Structures are given as structure tokens and as C-alpha cells.
């Protein structure tokens, strides 16, 4: 699953993205719902499903469905009770038939709290086989999970509804009674009864398609049995769609299903989908096991996409691309998302984690493999550099918290499953896989993956199974080394000291756990890692001077034939998941290599980000950091600018609570104006992907700083856009935000008119998110109230609300709105990551003891189950920012007054 609240930070959070960068851990002592221990008992394994024969009849007028299933089961232990999962279902009848034909009627009890159904029989079921038959009914809900309804508009303007599914995690139980845990793999034979003028899809090809014998307007579509798979990978859809298709070299049919009339917007996705499938077949040396792989755009979709085997579902903006209106960043995100879901067809679908503790085996690997595929398809994207910016750095930031969690995290209760679909499972998981890949080499990595996938095909696996496969091929102690990175949270910072010994350089390395407050308790001071170390020097930038495995807390390394004027840098291209703290002399020696861009962009990015982390940890003063930032005055690379922008944005947030905000804006304008003068507004080369991304970043920041030339040019271009001369999509978001931040009521309302006039979801999101940059109270309230109107899809409302928090006023009003409508947010999003993102962004921009108490009190009294850790992290952030202001304001003041 591709979770856009993680990956779309860069798409809709550029205005306020720094809010999630750094926090200082705080030992919060609370005996409230935020820290309460939940208990849950997993399903017994005395009855195992083998084959579901499932029939569903959705009613798209009253939003209900009826269903029946015959489940062929294996009885492992004699029992008079079958326990499985069900939620929001009514069960009319449950029968068990043994091989002799004898039938038992079951007494059904539903446990709504734990979402279980208990079927008891008067006689014990004997060891062997049998068929469990259940008749049931349910609702096509509007919560984007389970079997749900999705509203769309036909080309003629008529509103209609489709029925679609989202079963991860774990919501198959909302569509039919099942063993809704990943270890209970089975086959599924799906039959759908639906209007005959609708497209009907499932994981496999239809094998029978007939008219309903009693109802002329209905069709009955029966699908081929699926492979053996987990329940969360099942999917079925009834709606109206166009499609494009192609056949891969291995004869797999690939289709892109689009809303009717938008077939041409699926062309780019079809190219990526086909090439991704071929790439992974070659890389894993394992053919895709199904005859077809469909990708379909769903109007209402909570996450970014879902890897259902053979039928991948997406929100529209992640699969539709309009040549005239889709930006470069959205095309890139489409490629990343499709590659991610295609990788899941092997990692997650063919081989599945045994329980949610090993979710990262799905998500971490898909997040790493997506970059391999996109780099092969679009080398001009420079996607591995962006991996550093958008995967490694955010994971390092989150994992510095004491309220982080290990990659292999125990999951005791279903409510907590959604909470681990986070930067640790995805981005840290991907980062340590990248580190392992770099350490053992691509050849061993590929062969190890092939062996792992082949051995565990159609089965479940745990993390150690993967390490065993990689270790057997590479001959390196993969399990021992990588266990440090998956079983314990956090990561090290490596302190580097250097001394010259004749023609040799002696490097002393000392590791300690990195925490953003710079302190360690007794337990943390004992933690260590086995760290793959790489070192480069200025004598040969393209060659690793030394590779080593650091196995102790402290070690010395000798670099032979290194002159005294040679600089030394650790962690080439940020391949290792750790930070580096150089001595003052070593850092000074690196400064010229930064300013002349002798160092590669990722290495420049890494040095800056590590220094900023040390600043937030109290190891470097703000004035020292800002002085060091001058080494980046001539920077022109996009990924390095992402790191610069993260730092500037964070400082801008903090200083908004002081009287230094205007002075810092002047500093920022001066820093950004040089690159702005080089780039301007106009796209010089459509193929210069990263340059076009950089232009948008610079314009967004200068608009935030109210830089007059950017505001004035944006207003001019916006007026022309409304009159019929479109703004280039790559700068459209920046222009919209600049205009919305400084417009009158008439112009502000124009954004809503444009929203209503477009049918491109990407453009709708871009327009309304941009209005959140206004600093006017009435307009903020207008936007917040609009998010709950029928014109806004539930999947988008939370993002529009987040768009308001770029100013102090917007942050405060959005927080009030969230509190006033807490029950509605619970109903809409429950434990989904939408609420996690809302809570995070609406609260962690505060910076006072008063706000700390207010947030703590609210969530103590209003439980958002599954998001307790998010609240604790926000509390840490609030305390951090309050402390930072007390510690650093004078230092920043002195620096700003001296320039």
C-alpha cells in the first residue's frame, strides 16, 4: 500500500513541511488513554480456510449488499466452535457440512468490539475437511474501507456510485466473514451480481458472464480462482470505466482503467505499469503469476494505492496524468506509486508477512524497489538523490524520537495496525535495505531475493527468513548485522576525529545513539549497532577509500597515503542509516568542497542535515549553523536545496513566535534570491526534471516570505490564467499560494470557482490547498467550513485542513475546527493515517507550555484509538519548540543583526 500522507508531504506540505522535521524527546508521564495497554487475542488455528466461494450482490441505490459464501475448511483439532472475523455485518445463517453430507446449524454470536463472530455447533466438528456456509448482509459504507461506495459524475453530469474495496488493514471482514489475518492464506472464487451496464472486476479474469435468470437488468460474473493469498489482497469493483491496455513481453495483459471519457489520461500510467512489471520480472527472475494486472482509478480512496493481487486500486491523482495540467512532481509520484504497487506483487502478495509485526517486509521492500524501477525507467529523474531527501532524511528525523518504534514492532491489537504504516516501516525500512544492498552488492542481493521469494512463494515469512537468504548468498553475517537495525529503534551518530601520522590519516570513530535533545539515559548509553562504514577523500571522489564494518562503540581506522590537506567524509551518498558529527577542523575542511560543489549533491545534503540535527540537539548554536549555511550560497542542485529548505522552513516556523520573523524573512529572501534570479518563473527545458522541481521549491519559499517580485508576478500570471492563458503546471501550486496569501475576497473566491470548473483531481487539490496560505481569519474559516461541504471528497478534506497551518492564525483556527468536529473526524477516518496526519500537523507547530497542556488534555479526554503515539510525538514537538525558543532566540537575534 502506498500511503500518501507519507509520500505526498512534498506535494501538499511545501508551505509548512518543516513541522515534522525534528522533535526533542520528552519523558511524558501519563496514565491516560494515550499510554493504555490494549489486549487482543488472535484467531485460533484449529480451523483453517482453504477456498472461499464468495457471492456478493451490491445494491448501488440503497448502499447495501447481500452475500453468501461456502468456505472449504480444514479442521486441525476437533472443536464445536468456529471463530472468524466480521465487522458491520449481519449474519442470517451459518451451516457446516462434513464430507458425508451431514449438516449442522450454527448458533452465531457477534463480538462487535473485537470484530469477531463465534459460530457454535451442538456437535464437535471432527478433524478433517468440511464446508462452512454463511449467509450475510452489510452496508456499502462511505468510510473508504471494507466494501464501500464511491461517488462519480458521468460525462453527462449525472451523479452515480461505484462499489469498491479496500481491505488493508484489516477490513475484508467488513465485506464477508473471514479469517482476516495475513497468515490465513486461501484461494478465493468470487461471483458478483451487478447491473449489466457496469464494469465488473476482481483479482482474476472472469470465467463466466451471464444474465441474471430473474432480473433482466442484472448480470452474474464469476471469476477464476485466485492464487493462494491473504484476505486483505482480495478486491472487487462495480462501476463505469474506460481502459487502455498493452501486453508485456511475457504475455501479461496490463490495463489502466480510467473514469469514462478520460482514457487518454491513463497513457503515462500504462507505460510505467508495463515497464515496471517487466523490470521486476527480470530483477527477481520470477514471472508474474497471473495472466493480467489491472490498475484502476477510484474517485474516493483513502490512501495512495493498494496492491490487490491482479487489481491494483489508486486514488485518481496517482494514476491519471493530464499532459496540459499535471506537474512534473505528480508525474514522478505516479511513477513511484505504480512501481511500488507492482513490487508488492512479489513482496507482500507472493510472499506475505506472517503478522503485522513484519509489515516492513511488504512496505520497506516495496519502498526500496520502487526507486530501482523508476531509476531504470526514468534515469533523468535522478531518483536516488531524491531517495535521500524524501526517504532517508524523514526516517532519520522520526527515528530520533524516544516514541519511535523498531522496524519489527509488536502489534498486539488491530487498532494499532494503521499506526505502523509510517516512516519507520516504509522509509527506514527502505533505507536499511539500501544500506544492506550497498554492503553485500547488487549481485548477491538479487540472487538472495530470488531464493527468498522462491522458497516462500504463496506462504508467509518473517524477517529472519529474508536475512537467511541474503546471508547464504553473500557469505556475510547479514542476520547478525541487520538485526541491530530492525529489532531496536533509533540509530547511531558517529563522532569523527582525525589526526595526521606521516603520510597516513588516523580516523577515530565513536558511536552513540542519536537523540535530538542530545541526552542519553543509562539504557540508551549502552545501545550500539553494527555499522557498515564507507569513507571517501578529496584525493579520489569516485572511489571509496575504505569500507569497514564498525562492530564496537569506538574504533580507529588508518587511511594510508592521505596527505594533511586532504578532506575526509563518511557515509558516501548517505548509503548508511546514521548521522556523522565531525570535529570542527574536519567540518571546516569540508566547507570549500561544499561551496565549490566538489562534493556530490547527496553528500552536501547529508552534511547540512546532520549539522541541523546537531543544532536541534543543542550541540551547535543557531549562529554557528547559519554561518555554516553560507557554504551553500551557490547551491544549484534540487535535492540539496530540499535540505536547505527544510532547515530554513523549520527556523521560520520557530521564529514566527518571536519578534524576529520579519528579519528572518529578509535573510531568507537574500539567500533564495540568487537561485531565483537564475531560474525565474519560465520553464526553460521541459525535460530538465529536477530543475523544474527546484523552481517550484524556490518560488514557494519566496512567496511564503512575501517577496514582492514573486507575489506581483504570481498575481499577473494568475489573472492571465483565469482569462485563458494557463500557468505551467510545474509552478502552478507556487503561484496559487502566492496569490492566495495576498489577495482580496473576489480573487479568493475565484479559487473555489476554478475548483468547481475542473474535473482533474490533481488540480482540485492544488487549488484548495493553496487557499490555506491566506492570513485572513474570515477566509480561513471559509476554507475550513468548505472542507465539510458535499463538494469535497472525504479523501481530500483532511489535506485541505492541513493546508491552513502555514501561519500561526491558520494553525490556531484549524486546531479549533478539529476539536469542535472531533466526532466527525473519528467517524470519517477512524484509525486511518488521515487522522494521524491531521493530529500531527495541527498540533506540532505549537510552542508553549499552555498549548502543551491544552493538547494533552484534549486527547486524554478524546481518545483517537491507534494514534496515541502521534499525540505523544506532538507533545514532544511542542516542548521542543518552547525549549528551543528559550535557548536560541538571542543567538539568532545576534546573527541577524550582524548581517
From TrEMBL:
Principal subcellular localisation of the protein: membrane
EC number(s) stated in the UniProt entry for this protein: 3.4.11.-
EC category name: hydrolase
Pfam family for this entry, one: Peptidase_M1_N
Any one GO MF annotation of this record: alanyl aminopeptidase activity
One Gene Ontology term from the biological process aspect of the record: peptide catabolic process
Protein name listed in UniProt: Aminopeptidase
Species for this entry: Tetranychus urticae
Amino acid at each position: 500500500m502506498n500511503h500518501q500522507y507519507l509520500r505526498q508531504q512534498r506535494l501538499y506540505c511545501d508551505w509548512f513541511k518543516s513541522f515534522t522535521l525534528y522533535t526533542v524527546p520528552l519523558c511524558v508521564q501519563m496514565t491516560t488513554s494515550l499510554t493504555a495497554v490494549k489486549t487482543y487475542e488472535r484467531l485460533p488455528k484449529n480451523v483453517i480456510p482453504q477456498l472461499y466461494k464468495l457471492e456478493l450482490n451490491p445494491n448501488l441505490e440503497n448502499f447495501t449488499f447481500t452475500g453468501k459464501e461456502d468456505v472449504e475448511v480444514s479442521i486441525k483439532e476437533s472443536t464445536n466452535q468456529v471463530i472468524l472475523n466480521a465487522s458491520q455485518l449481519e449474519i442470517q445463517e451459518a451451516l457446516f457440512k462434513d464430507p458425508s453430507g451431514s449438516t449442522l446449524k450454527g448458533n452465531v454470536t457477534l463480538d462487535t468490539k473485537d470484530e469477531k463472530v463465534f459460530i457454535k455447533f451442538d456437535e464437535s466438528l471432527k478433524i478433517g475437511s468440511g464446508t462452512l456456509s454463511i449467509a450475510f448482509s452489510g452496508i456499502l459504507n462511505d468510510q473508504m474501507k471494507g466494501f464501500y461506495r464511491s461517488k462519480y459524475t458521468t460525462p453527462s453530469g449525472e451523479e452515480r456510485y461505484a462499489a469498491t474495496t479496500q481491505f488493508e488493514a484489516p477490513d475484508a471482514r467488513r465485506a464477508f466473514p473471514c479469517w482476516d489475518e495475513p497468515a490465513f492464506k486461501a484461494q478465493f472464487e468470487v461471483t458478483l451480481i451487478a447491473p449489466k451496464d457496469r464494469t465488473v472486476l476482481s483479482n482474476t479474469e472472469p470465467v463466466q458472464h451471464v444474465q441474471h435468470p430473474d432480473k433482466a437488468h442484472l448480470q452474474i460474473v464469476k471469476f477464476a480462482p485466485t492464487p493462494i493469498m491473504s484476505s486483505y489482497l482480495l478486491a472487487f469493483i462495480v462501476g463505469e470505466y474506460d481502459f487502455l491496455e498493452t501486453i508485456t513481453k511475457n504475455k501479461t495483459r496490463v490495463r489502466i482503467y480510467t473514469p469514462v471519457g478520460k482514457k487518454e489520461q491513463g497513457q503515462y500510467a500504462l507505460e510505467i505499469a508495463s515497464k515496471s512489471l517487466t523490470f521486476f520480472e527480470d530483477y527477481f527472475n520470477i514471472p508474474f503469476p497471473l495472466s493480467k494486472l489491472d490498475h484502476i482509478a477510484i474517485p474516493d480512496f483513502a490512501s495512495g494505492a493498494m496492491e490487490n493481487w491482479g487489481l491494483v486500486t489508486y486514488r485518481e491523482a496517482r494514476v491519471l496524468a493530464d499532459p496540459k495540467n499535471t506537474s512534473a512532481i505528480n508525474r514522478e509520484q505516479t511513477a513511484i506509486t505504480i512501481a511500488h504497487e507492482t513490487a508488492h506483487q512479489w513482496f507482500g502478495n507472493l510472499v506475505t508477512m506472517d503478522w503485522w509485526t513484519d509489515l516492513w517486509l511488504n512496505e520497506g521492500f516495496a519502498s526500496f524497489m520502487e526507486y530501482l524501477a523508476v531509476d531504470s525507467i526514468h534515469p533523468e529523474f535522478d531518483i536516488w538523490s531524491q531517495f535521500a531527501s524524501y526517504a532517508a532524511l524523514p526516517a532519520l528525523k522520526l527515528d530520533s524520537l524516544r516514541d519511535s518504534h523498531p522496524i519489527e514492532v509488536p502489534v498486539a491489537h488491530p487498532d494499532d495496525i494503521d499506526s505502523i504504516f509510517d516512516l519507520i516501516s516504509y522509509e527506514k525500512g527502505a533505507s536499511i535495505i539500501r544500506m544492506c544492498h550497498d554492503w553485500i552488492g547488487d549481485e548477491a542481493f538479487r540472487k538472495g531475493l530470488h531464493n527468498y521469494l522462491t522458497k516462500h512463494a504463496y506462504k508467509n515469512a518473517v524477517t529472519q527468513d529474508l536475512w537467511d537468504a541474503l546471508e547464504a548468498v553473500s557469505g556475510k553475517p547479514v542476520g547478525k548485522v541487520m538485526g541491530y537495525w530492525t529489532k531496536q529503534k533509533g540509530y547511531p551518530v558517529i563522532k569523527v576525529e582525525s589526526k595526521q601520522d606521516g603520510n597516513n590519516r588516523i580516523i577515530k570513530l565513536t558511536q552513540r545513539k542519536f537523540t535530538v535533545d542530545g541526552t542519553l539515559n543509562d539504557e540508551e548509553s549502552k545501545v550500539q549497532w553494527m555499522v557498515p562504514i564507507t569513507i571517501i577523500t578529496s584525493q579520489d571522489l569516485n572511489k571509496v577509500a575504505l569500507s569497514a564494518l564498525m562492530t564496537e562503540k569506538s574504533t580507529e581506522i588508518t587511511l594510508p597515503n592521505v596527505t594533511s590537506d586532504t578532506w575526509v567524509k563518511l557515509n558516501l551518498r548517505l548509503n548508511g542509516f546514521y548521522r556523522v558529527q565531525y570535529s570542527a577542523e574536519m567540518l571546516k575542511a569540508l566547507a570549500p568542497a561544499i561551496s565549490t560543489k566538489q562534493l556530490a549533491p547527496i553528500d552536501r545534503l547529508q552534511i547540512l542535515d546532520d549539522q541541523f540535527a546537531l543544532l536541534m540537539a543543542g550541540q551547535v548554536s543557531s549562529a554557528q549553523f547559519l554561518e555554516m549555511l553560507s557554504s551553500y550560497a551557490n547551491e544549484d542542485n534540487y535535492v540539496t536545496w530540499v535540505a536547505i529548505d527544510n532547515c530554513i522552513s523549520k527556523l521560520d516556523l520557530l521564529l514566527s513566535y518571536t519578534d524576529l520573523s520579519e528579519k528572518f524573512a529578509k535573510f531568507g529572501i537574500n539567500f533564495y534570491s540568487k537561485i531565483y534570479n537564475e531560474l525565474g518563473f519560465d520553464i526553460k527545458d521541459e525535460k530538465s526534471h529536477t530543475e523544474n522541481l527546484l523552481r517550484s521549491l524556490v518560488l514557494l519559499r519566496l512567496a511564503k516570505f512575501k517577496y514582492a517580485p514573486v507575489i506581483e508576478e504570481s498575481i499577473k500570471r494568475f489573472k492571465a490564467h483565469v482569462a485563458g492563458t494557463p500557468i505551467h503546471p510545474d509552478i502552478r501550486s507556487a503561484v496559487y499560494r502566492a496569490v492566495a496569501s495576498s489577495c482580496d475576497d473576489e480573487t479568493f473566491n475565484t479559487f473555489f470557482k476554478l475548483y468547481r470548473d475542473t474535473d482533474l483531481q490533481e488540480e482540485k487539490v492544488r487549488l484548495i490547498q493553496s487557499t490555506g496560505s491566506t492570513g485572513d481569519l474570515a477566509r480561513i474559516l471559509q476554507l475550513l467550513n468548505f472542507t465539510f461541504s458535499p463538494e469535497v471528497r472525504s479523501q481530500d478534506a483532511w489535506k485541505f485542513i492541513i493546508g491552513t497551518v502555514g501561519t500561526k492564525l491558520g494553525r490556531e483556527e484549524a486546531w479549533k475546527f478539529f476539536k469542535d468536529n472531533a466526532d466527525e473526524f473519528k467517524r470519517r477516518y477512524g484509525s486511518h493515517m488521515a487522522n494521524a496526519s491531521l493530529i500531527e500537523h495541527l498540533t506540532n507547530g505549537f510552542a508553549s507550555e499552555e498549548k502543551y497542556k491544552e493538547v494533552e488534555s484534549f486527547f486524554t479526554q478524546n481518545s483517537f484509538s491507534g494514534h496515541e503515539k502521534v499525540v505523544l510525538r506532538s507533545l514532544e514537538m511542542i516542548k521542543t519548540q518552547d525549549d528551543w525558543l528559550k535557548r536560541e532566540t538571542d543567538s539568532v537575534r545576534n546573527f541577524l543583526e550582524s548581517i
